[in-house]
Inverse folding.
């Protein structure tokens, strides 16, 4: 239902019940009202059938009605790799007053990453509470805690995901951290002196429900957080006003709060991004220059290098490799191929190494008594290592075939799996296959992801009651563990955004976002004839540049509202969403959506037709008062790009200058998208914006 009315006498709960009385036909609405959102915006969750939904949708002041869906979690060297050392300059006083809100699986409060040694009083601006429930205690570092639904009785994290993301964004500096001796160093978050407010919206099984997510946004905004990070996304691509994260983050933006979201782990498929709204800061994952590898030594002396985080030392012992007939189920008379590992003969595999054609079968093999496993993974998917519960590694298909050949041609095949080692990856940063890709499936004119950050093999704090390998049979427990996913990239950007805010507390969410996007570094790799920007956005975050970007592309709430009007929402919806009295005339003006002042320029065009498109942008000078910026454009074959004016001259701080980019051409190949970039430079600052021409039918 959008923004809350200004009337003091207005009671959201009473209003929601009154509305439901009109659609329930005699039923008691109090029994069917699930949740009222009444602290930061107006809305509710209720149990409705299709007929009741349609009646509610027809009521005045109702913006949207949509079915509930389940969201998924998007899963210390990284800061140094980014050029963000412990010695980087900080405003400790301002940073100490910042509150990072984390919507996730909760937090393990006893972790050293959340100790409050040396912290002063809780900031006076804080309006939240420590309502962490059973066995949860806050301190001066973790100053707020709430939990929602899913049978939760506490904000305590039994999954590990929320503890990991919280410590990545805001964890204290903890020396001598490692995972069983691997990756030893200092663990720290992006803003270690900031405070944390934890909102447990996901259950211990990782399931996150939209009614709880929206309730957490309602609370977090009212509580007074400064930055929100949410490494959660839906499995369905839905509209801007049917996505609770989009809705919640819009109201956060109204209050000056930037929401950072993981784009999802459904790559490398195109248009798989789960974070699509322009006011969201959508983050893809990249690798860092530290990688974990594992060695396999066969009985014939041949050695192969695979991927895994294997903590079990071999001590020089070789174990037998199970033959193909181990992949059968005599009691069910079912023959299982070696590619499934779905049913194993325990007598045949006990104490042996099993060859398996799929990557995620360790638990079944462990239950069957296997000693270890060698798995076949397509090369493009074998670009990161995950923590295994027993000696295991993933091999590329060609190496796996050689191991199979040795096993089948040898009477007593044996192998040794060594403990993992760390290697320096000179190719980093690259986008791993799992990171979700653009183009934006909902608003093609808005580039997604916005930016990328380290999300592969990240060491951070962990729940001491969670399985480190996500397998029930894994009874090991670690205070710090290694995770991969866009979930891990997201809190890196949240930490950087909070860092920028500590120096520029009055900057808008869009200004902070622009500073990070326009200073980002290039990312390596090729992306299947698709522009790399659909994988990494503007590039990999560059913390050394974000405080002084030179120019920013700012966007106000009114700009977003105008974009929604052009996108196709009507006057009544706009008023309910934002309280704005903007009149949306007639049909949508999609051709104007591209003119929102975004730091990236995306131009959707029709195939095989000539185009002549103008894009309008305005930049604000946040660098030296007297400065001039010259435009440079990387050319696209057969497309003419004109920037007018080519020179922007500023005389004062915060002065604004506008320009127009014109693109003229016609699709001349089978390629569906082309990319370039516009750079405004004064000789010191290089303000870079991607330009993408996307062919859509």
């Amino acid at each position: 239902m959008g923004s809350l009315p200004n009337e003091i006498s207005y009671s959201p709960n009473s209003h929601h019940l009154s509305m439901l009385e009109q659609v329930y036909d005699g039923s008691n609405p109090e029994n069917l009202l699930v949740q009222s959102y009444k602290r930061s915006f107006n809305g509710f969750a209720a149990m409705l059938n299709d007929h009741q939904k349609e009646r509610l949708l027809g009521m005045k002041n109702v913006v949207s009605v949509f079915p509930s869906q389940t969201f998924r979690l998007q899963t210390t060297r990284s800061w140094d790799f980014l050029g963000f050392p412990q010695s980087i300059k900080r405003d400790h006083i301002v940073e100490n007053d910042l509150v990072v809100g984390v919507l996730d699986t909760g937090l393990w409060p006893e972790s050293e990453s959340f100790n409050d040694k040396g912290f002063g009083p809780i900031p006076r601006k804080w309006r939240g509470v420590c309502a962490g429930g059973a066995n949860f205690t806050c301190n001066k570092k973790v100053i707020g805690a709430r939990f929602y639904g899913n049978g939760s009785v506490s904000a305590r994290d039994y999954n590990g995901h929320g503890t990991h993301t919280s410590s990545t964004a805001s964890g204290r500096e903890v020396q001598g951290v490692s995972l069983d001796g691997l990756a030893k160093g200092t663990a720290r978050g992006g803003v270690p002196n900031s405070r944390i407010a934890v909102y447990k919206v996901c259950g211990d099984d990782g399931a996150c429900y939209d009614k709880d997510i929206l309730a957490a946004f309602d609370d977090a905004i009212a509580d007074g957080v400064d930055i929100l990070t949410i490494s959660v996304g839906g499995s369905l691509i839905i509209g801007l006003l049917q996505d609770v994260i989009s809705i919640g983050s819009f109201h956060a933006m109204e209050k000056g709060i930037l929401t950072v979201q993981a784009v999802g782990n459904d790559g490398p498929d195109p248009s798989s991004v789960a974070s699509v709204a322009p006011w969201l800061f959508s983050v893809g994952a990249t690798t860092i220059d530290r990688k974990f590898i594992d060695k396999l030594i066969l009985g014939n002396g041949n050695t192969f290098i695979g991927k895994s985080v294997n903590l079990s030392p071999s001590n020089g012992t070789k174990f037998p490799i199970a033959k193909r007939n181990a992949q059968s189920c005599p009691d069910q008379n079912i023959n299982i191929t070696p590619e499934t590992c779905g049913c194993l003969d325990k007598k045949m595999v006990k104490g042996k190494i099993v060859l398996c054609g799929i990557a995620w079968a360790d638990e079944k093999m462990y239950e069957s008594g296997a000693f270890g496993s060698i798995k076949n993974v397509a090369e493009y998917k074998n670009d990161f290592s995950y923590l295994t519960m027993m000696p295991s590694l993933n091999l590329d298909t060609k190496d796996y075939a050689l191991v199979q050949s040795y096993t089948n041609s040898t009477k007593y095949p044996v192998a040794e799996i060594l403990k993992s080692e760390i290697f320096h990856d000179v190719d980093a940063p690259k986008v791993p296959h799992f990171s979700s890709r653009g183009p934006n499936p909902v608003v093609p004119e808005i580039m997604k992801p916005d930016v990328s950050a380290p999300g592969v093999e990240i060491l951070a704090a962990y729940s001491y009651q969670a399985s480190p390998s996500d397998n029930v049979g894994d009874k090991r427990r670690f205070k710090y563990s290694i995770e991969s996913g866009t979930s891990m990239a997201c809190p890196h950007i949240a930490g950087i955004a909070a860092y920028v805010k500590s120096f520029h507390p009055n900057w808008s969410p869009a200004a902070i976002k622009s500073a990070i996007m326009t200073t980002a570094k290039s990312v390596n790799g090729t992306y299947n004839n698709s522009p790399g920007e659909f994988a990494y956005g503007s590039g990999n975050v560059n913390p050394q540049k974000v405080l002084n970007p030179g120019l920013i592309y700012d966007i106000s709430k009114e700009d977003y509202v105008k974009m929604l009007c052009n996108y196709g929402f009507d006057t009544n919806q706009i008023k309910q969403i934002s309280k704005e009295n903007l009149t949306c005339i007639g049909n949508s003006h999609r051709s104007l959506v591209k003119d929102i002042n975004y730091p990236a320029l995306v131009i959707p065009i029709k195939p095989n037709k000539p185009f002549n498109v103008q894009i309008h942008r305005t930049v604000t000078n946040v660098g030296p008062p007297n400065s001039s910026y010259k435009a440079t454009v990387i050319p696209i074959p057969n497309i003419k790009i004109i920037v007018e004016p080519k020179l922007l001259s500023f005389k004062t701080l915060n002065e604004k200058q506008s320009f127009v980019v014109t693109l003229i051409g016609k699709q001349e190949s089978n390629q569906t998208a082309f990319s370039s970039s516009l750079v405004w430079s004064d000789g010191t600052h290089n303000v870079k914006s991607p330009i993408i021409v996307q062919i859509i039918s």
